[in-house]
Amino acid sequence: MSEVALPSTKKTSRSIWRVIALLVVVGLVLALALQLRARNATQPTSGAAPDFILKVYSGYDGGSGKPEIRLADLRGQVVFVNFWASWCVPCRDEQPALEKVWRQYRDKGVVFVGVDYVDTEPAALKYLAEFGVSYPNGPDLGTKISPKYHIQGVPESFLVDRQGNIVLFKIAPINAAELVTALDHALAK
Amino acid sequence: MQDARCKSQVTGHRSLDAWWAIALLVGVIASLLVIGVVAAQGGTVTDDQVNAIAKRLNCPVCENVPLDVCETQACVQWRDLIRQKLAAGEKPEQIINYFQTTYGDRVLQEPPRQGFTGLVWILPFVGLVAGMAILVVVLRRMTARPAPVQLETAPSESADEYRERLERELKELG
User: Fold this and answer.
1) Torsion angle in degrees (nearest 10) through CA of A147, A149, A152, A158
2) Same domain, yes or no, for A127 and A158?
């Protein structure tokens, strides 16, 4: 009885295609898993604060004279990062407290940074002027900063200590007393 | 004397007509200028013009809701911005580009056809082609007739030859 044998080149080609198909499937599953993981990620409450560069609105550099703020450059200072938007009603509730506390702490090694989330510039500038905001503020250009912090809405705030670690996360409007306590605690460390 | 007065009246009428004509001309020119300026500024931006652009964008705070039908305050502000930009004479593509640059690709109803998001457009076709290829291969295998197997057989011999051989072998044995 004669044996029907496949040529070795045909066998090799078939194996290569199988490996490629397997790699494609594994890649797709991996991409899906990463996507799901990113989607389910929550706001960081500790550990290193994700770095970002914020291009500030004209006239809202907080007196630094720089058009951009990089979080990593603020290492050694306590940084309060506040995500807000002019269309956000609760943001309006907390805004006077933020400005008041900023003025209290601006000379004590504290920096406030406002990140304006999916807002329009004219409305944002009107809002900043309305509340007399004087600390650095800028738009989340390309919506690149907010995904790093996995924010789910506004206002949301993070307090970063001198070592660059997150020491407070607040998902609702923060009041002056709460912020002062957190700042004092971070400054005392 | 009367002639001179008549002449003066005629000249006066002509002069008055000329002034009226000049005033009318100035009025027409001024109106055209105002219309031109208003048109250049897009002073009459309609809701349809705004929505034609808005429906190509997503609400920034909802999941997959087109901007033209969303009633959140954020969307109202975005549509206002579109209106302002149209009024300033910007073209729809410029406005779409502005929103894409400012807020990222996720604001586009239709994902861009380049870069990583371009895969969204390519992968379904790749999947379709791969699926069809797999189907063809499987169907071919299912319908293929088994290849005729050639069995090794002894050279054929006639019945007489076979009988002779059988008798010979039996004799040898017996």
Assistant:
1) -150
2) yes
**Per the confidence metrics, is the pTM higher than 0.90?**
no
Q: Name A53's bridge partners.
A: A70
Domain count, chain B: 2
The pLDDT tens digits of the residues spanning B86-135 come to 999 999 999 999 999 999 999 999 988 776 666 767 777 888 888 888 88
- Nearest CB partner across the interface for A87, out of B73, B107, B147: B73
State the residue range of the domain holding A177.
53-188
Alpha helices in chain A (DSSP H): 8-40, 89-105, 121-130, 146-149, 176-188
Among the listed residues B95, B61, B102, the one whose alpha carbon sits nearest the alpha carbon of residue B81 = B95
User: What ipTM does this complex have?
Assistant: 0.78
Q: Which of B60, B78, B147 sits opposite A4 (nearest CB)?
A: B147
Q: Does residue A145 share a domain with residue A58?
A: yes
Contacts 24+ apart (CB under 8 A), B36-40: B40/B89
A14 shares a domain with A86: no
Are A2 and B150 in contact (CB < 8 Å)?
yes
Looking at beta carbons, which residues of chain A come within 8 Å of B149? 1-2, 4
With beta carbons less than 8 A apart as the criterion, state whether A105 and A81 touch.
Answer: no
Least reliable range by pLDDT among A5-19, A42-56, A100-114, B58-72 = A5-19
